[in-house]
Amino acid sequence: MEQINSFINWIQSIKIENIIEIIIAIGIYLIFRITSRALSYITIRMFKPRIKNKKSIKNNAFYAPLRIFYTVLGIYLAILFLKTPLKISNELFIIINRIFKISVIIIFANGISNSLTINSNFINKIKQKINPELQDSMFKFILKAIRILIYIIAGFLIITELGYNLNGLVAGLGIGSVVITLAAQDTAKNLFGGLVIFLDKPFIVGDWIEIDKYEGTVEDITFRSTRVRTFENSVVNIPNSLIANESIINWSRMEKRRNKVNLCLELDTPIEKVLIVQNRIKEMLKQHDDVIDDTIMVRFDNILDNGINLLVCSYTNSINYASFLEEKEKINFKIMQILREENVELAYDTKTVFVKK
């Protein structure tokens, strides 16, 4: 009840001059709020005079944060204007100052973070100067690390602005370091696993890889995990710590793909027929466009219990799995055609059992 009465007394104490000043303060806020677009546009043009396209300026990473900044600035200036008329205490104004500074830190930290993208012309120029051959996946990883560092610095600035002693905070972290270390073991493993991936470069985004029981196309590499879209069109997030400790097959880096066929001919096939089939298959492979000639091997490989093994091995330029299967099918059809034309049968896996009477 006392608070209501004090509020009523404060209302009654407001003079006409105070009302006019409040209206002026509201006007200050509205001016900044309405002109925030134009002010943001002018600010970006000041720092980037070469950009004349309005759409490019509006797509700038600092455009939206600047609009928020000018709106917050309008509120702050309006309160600053009312400090004397409304007799705002110094303690309250210190709090308002802190809120304004913290808002500015967050806004500009967000703007800087948003500007650190692979699509930024400025960032691409830096990349070209430092290392033009740096892969996009590695570059994205570095930019993510810088963005996290920016937010960490902003967090420390906010803590300092709130009046906390960073030395005491660091000491407190030292006391709880054991707990933090135990809780962050997996995170640390995944982080170092991600660093190993980027340093060793066993694969990049877009590669077809096989890890343990997972196989598919790499879609993204983050600090914690690698996202792979499997051939069943499902998405699996593999922890980087697991990838760092597993053997990785990168199918996308094949320069050629091997096609291997074992033909088990019947054991009673004449040796002359075996030689004819061998030569015909070899000539057929040489005439095949996608088969690399100097990799062709057609050899009498082994004598088995139930037949003669003819090894047909060659490499093809068809690296893509679908095109490889198509080429493999054509070769298999032609091999079957040669066997039929030469009247040579493939052996069955049979065993002869002798029964002693």
Comma- or semicolon-separated keywords:
alpha+beta; 3-stranded antiparallel β-sheet; 357 residues; 15% strand; elongated; 14 helices; 5-stranded antiparallel β-sheet
Task: Provide structural commentary.
With 357 residues, this protein is of the alpha+beta class. Helix content is 58%, strand content 15%. The chain has helices at 2-13, 16-34, 36-47, 54-58, 63-82, 90-115, 121-130, 136-161, 166-175, 177-183, 185-200, 240-244, 271-287, 321-341; strands at 208-211, 214-221, 225-230, 235-239, 248-250, 257-266, 297-303, 307-316. The chain has a 5-stranded antiparallel beta sheet with strand order 4-3-2-1-5. The protein has a 3-stranded antiparallel beta sheet with strand order 6-8-7.
The major beta sheet can be summarized as:
5 strands, antiparallel
The strand line-up of the biggest sheet is 4-3-2-1-5
List how many beta strands DSSP finds.
8
SSE ordering: HHHHHHHHHHHEEEEHEEHEEH
Uncertain runs are none
Global shape: elongated
State the gist of this model.
The protein has helices spanning 2-13, 16-34, 36-47, 54-58, 63-82, 90-115, 121-130, 136-161, 166-175, 177-183, 185-200, 240-244, 271-287, 321-341, and strands spanning 208-211, 214-221, 225-230, 235-239, 248-250, 257-266, 297-303, 307-316. The protein has 357 residues and is α+β, with helices and mostly antiparallel strands.
List the helices and strands and how they pair.
Layout: H1 2-13, H2 16-34, H3 36-47, H4 54-58, H5 63-82, H6 90-115, H7 121-130, H8 136-161, H9 166-175, H10 177-183, H11 185-200, E1 208-211, E2 214-221, E3 225-230, E4 235-239, H12 240-244, E5 248-250, E6 257-266, H13 271-287, E7 297-303, E8 307-316, H14 321-341
